[in-house]
Amino acid sequence: MTVSPGPGPRTGPEPERGRADAIPETGPEQQLARLGGSWTWLLGSALATLVPGIIVLAWPDETLHVLAVLIGLYLLVTGVFRFVSAFAREHGERATAVLVAVLYVVAGVLCLRHPLQTIAVLSLVVGVLWLVTGMLTAYTAVAAKDLPHRGILMGAGFLGIVAGIVVLALPAESAFALTRLLGLWLVLLGLVELIVALVWRAALRRADSGSLPGAPRAV
């Protein structure tokens, strides 16, 4: 999941520039931070999780090879979203976020390079990633006390933790069963991320309109 960094309250948005002034445009790093901090980037991340889940559930006759390719592409795309989003975090949290993004990309490459791997290996890769990222998301929700709608982010983290535990503790015995399990969790996680993106958009709009005492920092 792509998650929000801890909020950094500002003195208020400037009418001329809106939320675009949250991060000065002084270089590539700032540009990536602005992109990763936009609600549309969160929306893209949500769709990158939701769409593969729908495809997996709607395609009833996938082989393990096809499933591994779909999961590999999902991990690669999610890794890219997470890498860019990491630049919107505080420097103290950025290293961890980049590390998680790298893990996603590495896992995705492994799935694509070895598409005929066993069901157990595929379950292990996805389960561990969901468990770790779910814990990090929950930690963010607990630590970022000024984050709007922390409960939704906490729910997203909890769902990721449960998904990871279920995939790891209940390994599927066939590609068919694993397909249904992974597809279901991808859809659930994608829907939660979609809600987070819409909530973040609403928070940013309220901040720009001056209805909030301090503008939230985008993800």
TrEMBL record:
Keywords: Membrane, Transmembrane, Transmembrane helix. Residues 1-23 are annotated as: Disordered. InterPro entries: Acid_resist_chaperone_HdeD, DUF308_memb. Residues 13-22 have a biased composition (Basic and acidic residues). It comes from the Bacteria. Residues 1-12 have a biased composition (Pro residues). The chain crosses the membrane at residues 39-59, 65-84, 96-116, 122-144, 151-170, 182-200. PANTHER family: PROTEIN HDED. This is DUF308 domain-containing protein. The lineage of its organism: Bacteria, Bacillati, Actinomycetota, Actinomycetes, Kitasatosporales.
